[in-house]
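Duplicate of #3305? Posting structure anyway:
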């Protein structure tokens, strides 16, 4: 079983990673009443873990939040920050300055990602139900974090709605990212924290890291809201 140290081990798949997180999470929320605990997944991969954690019945409410990474010019895989709505944006100022990213580019990229968030919102949450966050313990879940930008912006957005506390649950993230996330939430629960120098991608820590489709997320959301 992977442990929270600097040895590099792999998860079989996202469900396996979620199962390993569950025991740690149950310890963190053992004094909480289930109705006061909410599990949020970040699409797409994080939804698989979040739903697995929810089905463990540590919580009685499951939903998703939809942030988007802001990609760098000429390299969309490199994040310069993240956005969840027009009022909640996180920029990695170090990367922005290092790449000399213009403000015009940032504004264009923000607008592009807002459009994608709107598309996914209509697809994943067509009923546009209100989020049930106030005075709740929030477990924010993803399948791992490289820079942590989407988790940062999600946590800041959730914080605006006055939760009781926020716990980030991720199977793996480099040490620098874990330290960044600890500044944003009340607790960060992880399994593997490799040195940043050993971290190239979240996928390297999974034997099976298949792409999660929109259809898979929609299916899960329909199971939660069958009507």
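Output from current build:
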């Amino acid at each position: 079983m992977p442990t929270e140290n600097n040895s590099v081990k792999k998860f079989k798949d996202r469900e396996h990673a979620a199962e390993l997180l569950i025991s740690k999470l149950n310890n963190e929320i053992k004094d909480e009443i289930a109705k006061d605990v909410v599990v949020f997944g970040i699409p797409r991969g994080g939804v698989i873990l979040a739903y697995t954690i929810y089905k463990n019945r540590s919580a009685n409410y499951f939903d998703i939040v939809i942030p988007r990474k802001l990609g760098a010019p000429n390299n969309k895989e490199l994040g310069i920050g993240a956005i969840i709505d027009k009022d909640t944006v996180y920029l990695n100022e170090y990367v922005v300055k290092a790449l000399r990213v213009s403000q015009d580019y940032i504004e264009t990229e923000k607008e592009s990602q807002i459009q994608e968030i709107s598309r996914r919102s209509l697809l994943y949450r067509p009923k546009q139900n209100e989020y049930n966050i106030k005075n709740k313990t929030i477990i924010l879940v993803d399948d791992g974090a490289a820079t942590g930008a989407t988790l940062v912006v999600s946590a800041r957005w959730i914080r605006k709605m006055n939760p009781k506390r926020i716990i980030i649950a991720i199977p793996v993230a480099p040490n620098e990212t874990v330290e960044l996330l600890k500044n944003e939430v009340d607790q960060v629960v992880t399994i593997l924290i490799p040195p940043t120098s050993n971290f190239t991608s979240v996928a390297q820590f999974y034997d099976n890291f298949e792409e999660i489709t929109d259809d898979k997320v929609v299916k899960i959301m329909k199971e939660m809201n069958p009507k």
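Confirmed duplicate; merging threads. The radius of gyration is 17 Å. The chain has a mean pLDDT of 92.
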